[in-house]
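User: Fold this; tokens only.

Assistant: Input:
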Amino acid sequence: MEIKEQVRQLNDEIIELRRDFHQHPELGLEEFRTSEKIITYLENIGMDVSRIAETGVVGLLSGNHPGRTLLLRADMDALPIQEENEVPYKSIYDGKMHACGHDGHTAMLLIAAKILSRHTDEITGNIKFLFQPDEENMYADVLVEKGVLKNPRVDAAMGIHLMTTIPAGKIGIQSGPVMAGMHVFNLTIKGKGGHTGFPQDSIDPIITAASIIQSTQIIQTREIDVLKPTLIVFGKIEGGTIGNVIPDKVKMEGTIRYLYDTEPDTDEHPCTKFERVVESICAAHRAKYDIKYTYSHPPVINDPGMAYLVRAKAENVVDTEDNIIPFVTMIGEDFCEFANRAPSAFYFVGAGNKDIGADYPHHHPCFNIDEDSLAVGVEMHVRTALSFLSKS
């Protein structure tokens, strides 16, 4: 039976799985129900299954011929967001929601595993199906440390992200950087508190912070090539208790994102430039500072050969070549931990449809997807895996 027809026959099951995961969202490292459902599903189709990092799941499918090993990855954690959609499968948990498409990613990979398990005679090598916990908190590096790329050793990796910013029916793929490197920073400016009537006796961390916010924006336009996208954005600032008191410190949080390959701890890295400006401004204001990075990861960079394979298979999935588009985003993704260690392709399946309200951005309380996109993702998983592991 042709692959597209196999996917079509399982379409109701894809949607049922996605809605079940959507209705029962679980935060990172709390995906206990989700992982149990995944384990049961994979075992029922005869796959070898193991746990990794408590809530992570790995299914191993071996073909009838020895060869390379391909990793297919889906993330499964939800977000701490109160859902505002009024749909039958709305989250039953207050303050938890699948607002990034991970419910769809998990459903797509499960159905792809079912179909691929019927094609072991066409598979030369192995497929590892990784259901990853806690992607929103960049947990992939822990999985690497725990050996997810070993036994058998992974030769290549692929992943899909559903995107409502891409219309349903389109696929976004290109080689090179496709998702941003990201560093989430916590910056504390330490001054000397006092009375606003005697500011000369204080060291004002608020005016220091204001100068830092303004001056670090220059890095993006005056120190880094405009063809190397860079964003320094402050998302939170906290300081003071009352209007007539100068506080002794100000806390700021934000992100540094960039879409190019750069070595850490060098003068050219955006974090190095950021810290240099912070240090200089604090010195000018007689203040001190402390900076910590809660999350850090490099960009997701697609291997040219793997990207070519994905594009070639996409021509069998979407109606016309015009529906295969280049796509790059400044959103971060910890799939980079796999892409840094094996030739990889991370690509995007359009899930946006304004007519049904599936046009809200990711992490929005009204986020939803066009469920027709799920079948596209399943077919892409199946075709790309069979192509990579074919005898030829």
